[in-house]
């Protein structure tokens, strides 16, 4: 049984996953690290640091969105950004 929300999980592995990632009553899961450049959020500081380094490191970013200032080291991130934030499906330059 989850000590935070009292939900019952038969296998302990499911209970552990629930407590680590899903339980909204667990204070650890409600603390998030928010990116200052975009809407990305993570419950892990290391994931946020990796995100900022990979996506927003303006010194070495190779790819950029033609519609805004979003930049990334990865072309697929720019394509995903365009699809998600600009609501365009097949935008290629």
Short description:
The protein has helices spanning 12-22, 27-30, 45-56, 75-85; strands at 33-34, 41-42, 63-64, 71-72. By secondary structure, the protein is mainly α.
Key attributes of the depicted protein:
93 residues; mainly alpha; two-stranded antiparallel ribbon; two-stranded antiparallel sheet; 4 helices; 4 strands; 41% helix; 9% strand; elongated
Shape: elongated
Total number of distinct structural domains: 2
What is the rounded Rg?
18 Å
- The overall strand count is 4
Helix content: 40-55%
On the 0 to 100 scale, the average pLDDT is 82
Number of helices: 4
Run of helices and strands: HHEEHEEH
Strand order of the largest sheet: 1-2
Oligomer: single chain
Unreliable stretches (pLDDT < 50, length at least 5) are: none
The percentage of residues in β strands lies in: 5-15%
Structural class assignment: mainly alpha
Q: How many angstroms separate the termini?
A: 53 Å
Outline the biggest β-sheet: 2 strands, antiparallel
Keywords: DNA-binding, Homeobox
Protein name: Zinc finger E-box-binding homeobox 1
InterPro entries: Znf_C2H2_type
GO molecular function: DNA binding
Plain-language structure description:
By secondary structure, the protein is mainly α. It has two domains: 12-56, no CATH class; 62-92. The chain contains four helices and four strands. The chain has a two-stranded antiparallel ribbon. A hairpin with a 6-residue loop joins strand 1 and strand 2 (41-42). The radius of gyration is 18 Å and the shape is elongated. The protein starts with 11 loop residues before the first helix and ends in an 8-residue tail after the last helix. The mean pLDDT is 82.
């Amino acid at each position: 049984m989850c000590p935070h929300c009292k939900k019952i999980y038969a296998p302990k592995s499911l209970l552990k996953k629930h407590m680590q990632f899903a339980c909204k009553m667990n204070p650890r899961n409600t603390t998030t690290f928010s990116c200052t450049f975009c809407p990305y959020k993570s419950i892990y500081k290391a994931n946020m640091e990796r995100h900022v380094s990979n996506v927003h490191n303006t010194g070495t970013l190779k790819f950029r969105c033609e519609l805004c200032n979003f930049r990334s080291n990865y072309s697929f991130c720019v394509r995903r950004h365009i699809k998600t934030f600009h609501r365009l499906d097949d935008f290629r330059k």
